[in-house]
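Dataset card, provenance and construction

Sequences and ligand SMILES were collected as paired inputs. For each pair, a complete structure of the chain with the small molecule in place was predicted and serialized as structure tokens. The example below shows a pair involving flavin mononucleotide. Curators did not alter the output after generation; any descriptive sentences attached to a record were derived from the structure itself.
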Amino acid sequence: MKLPLKPTHSDELAQRKSDHIKLSENARTHVSKLDGRFFYEPLFFTHPTSETKWSSSFLGFNFDYPIWVSSMTGGTNHAKVINENLAKLCGEFHLGMGLGSCRSLLHDPSRLGEFKVKKFMPSSPLFANIGIAQVEECVREGSVHRLHELVSMVEADGLVIHINPLQEWFQPGGDRFKVTPLETLKRFLGQCSYPVIVKEVGQGMGPKSLKALLELPVAGIELAGFGGTNFTLLEKMRGDHLSSREGFIHVGHSCLEMISILNALPERNKEIIISGGISSMLDGYELKSKLKRNSVIGMASAFLGPALMSYEELRGFFLDQVEALLTARASLELREEG
Ligand SMILES: Cc1cc2nc3c(=O)[nH]c(=O)nc-3n(C[C@H](O)[C@H](O)[C@H](O)COP(=O)(O)O)c2cc1C
């Protein structure tokens, strides 16, 4: 019987065999390097192709892959190109995206162009972003309508609110909260008709905060866990701080810990963006498999460099990540649930 083998040039084959002999001595992995998180199931595997999708539904939108571009930029000179490239990616592959803080627009709409990217992703969710300090101020002044105007100004489908007390404490001239974020959220959410997602900025949240969030009328929670970009550290690098504060840079909760907390809490129909230090799709796949709630994998800083370079660069980076995610889904299963 003639097998339908792909024709391989004999020189190429010989070269490959010769490479194998030369390289094999250094191509050994010690058993201590085994990544034991998964069962590896080669008998059930087919290679993903460019047609393969991981169709998902999140916040009522259809995604081709369960991936979210976490809030990053706006209000600075590179922001327009970064946001446009990221939004084009979300438009082409049906992903969701959070804009960076839109605070500047509250006082000066001259930079609106940097945030006006909905046209690139008309059928995918785009969320505006604001800090809890600004929400507190608007609630106190009775001017919550300014936040509603902000959301409609950037043509967003909802609002991400970031809760960042330690970042503010470290930031030169940072805001101080006069009431707790929980109280502010309760008062704000009662006056708001669009979906709201609440996130940290790289240090995650503990069990009491997660439980309180699940009980609020928010659409979702973005973990923004410890292990990746850490804005308290970043603000420390920008300013001159007393050493007594330094320990606060290292407090917080990883995504893994937050996922086990969430799994032990009642469902409450909240959707989750798993983010904070996701630099490998093996990690993303592991965390998504562990969480017993509808979720997408969020990344911020990993997208930044490629988005700044060009759309082609960003697209290539993304496709590489997606292939890794799909390969993980096709070949690996979590060893342990929960
Ligand atoms: C350059 C940059 C700017 C960011 N700006 C914001 C912001 O304006 N609002 C916000 O909620 N989070 C902001 N973040 C935090 C991210 O959304 C995310 O929570 C954090 O970076 C952790 O994800 P990562 O480890 O994938 O970078 C920013 C992150 C980066 C890298």
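Derived descriptions for this record:
DSSP finds 14 helices and twelve strands in the chain.
Residues 56-332 form a domain with the TIM Barrel fold (CATH 3.20.20.70).
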